[in-house]
Design brief:
alpha/beta, Jelly Rolls, 16% helix, Rossmann fold, 4-stranded antiparallel β-sheet, 10-stranded mixed β-sheet, globular
Length: 234
């Protein structure tokens, strides 16, 4: 069984997108060895937060400034198959990264959000562990057989001195959504409505809005593709 657990001993690629809900300086906590790339107008968000990226990727149709000197950039035509975020994910995948964190890309234009979620699925199947998050939401994908463990404080990037995360109705919510016709053999624990050998289908959102009851939630699936989310309930 494959494990979709983020391995912090491996270097990760950080992708900064143009639409970010929340303060990037709080959302992104750098780790040694991070490679930071910006998807098109994500460069402005990085610059505002004082982050100097290693690479810029995109068609730059939305970049509202000249390309900066001294930062490597790859330019693609406006008419292309990949989105700018997809280009960044492809670069990370072909470059040998295994862990990729996409900051932002949720909310705003619906077509952008859906495209990013489809990219999470596609690149997970290509062997990446991809997570996408902002201040409110965290999303990753399990392609069965797979398992993962998520903490109630997943969305709280600055841990030191934080008060305990509230559990229950006022705390974070787990979402499980089938992105294939069905996802089978689902087990989950640490939530108000745990699952045991359950089946979720792509046309009924039974797995939405499940409150955390423990600090850690464990999820395992046997087959299918499952989108897993953690959302702030504040």
């Amino acid at each position: 069984m494959s494990a979709a657990v983020y391995n912090r001993t491996m270097k990760r690629c950080i992708i900064i997108t143009s639409y970010i809900e929340g303060d990037l300086k709080t959302i992104y906590v750098p780790e040694p060895g991070d490679t930071v790339i910006c998807a098109d107008n994500g460069y402005l968000a990085a610059a505002k937060a004082g982050i100097v990226p290693d690479l810029l990727i995109g068609d730059y149709d939305s970049l509202q400034t000249d390309l900066p000197d001294g930062i490597r950039h790859l330019t693609f035509p406006v008419h292309k198959d990949y989105t700018d975020t997809g280009l960044c994910l492809d670069w990370a995948c072909t470059g040998g990264f295994k862990n990729v964190s996409v900051i932002g890309g949720l909310g705003g234009r619906l077509d952008h959000t859906l495209a990013n979620l489809q990219d999470l699925i596609g690149f997970t199947r290509r062997g990446l562990h991809v997570e996408m998050f902002d201040r409110i939401n965290y999303v990753t994908v399990l392609d069965g057989p797979a398992e993962t463990t998520l903490r109630a404080d997943t969305l709280r990037r600055e841990k030191a001195g934080d008060p305990p995360v509230i559990l229950g109705e006022d705390g974070p919510r787990l979402g499980l959504f089938a992105f294939t016709e069905k996802v089978s053999g689902i087990f989950s624990s640490g939530v108000e409505y745990p699952l045991s050998d359950a089946v979720l289908r792509y046309d009924f959102p039974l797995g939405s809005g499940n409150p955390f009851t423990e600090e850690e939630v464990r999820i395992r699936i046997d087959s299918g593709t499952l989108l897993v989310s953690v959302s702030d309930n504040k």
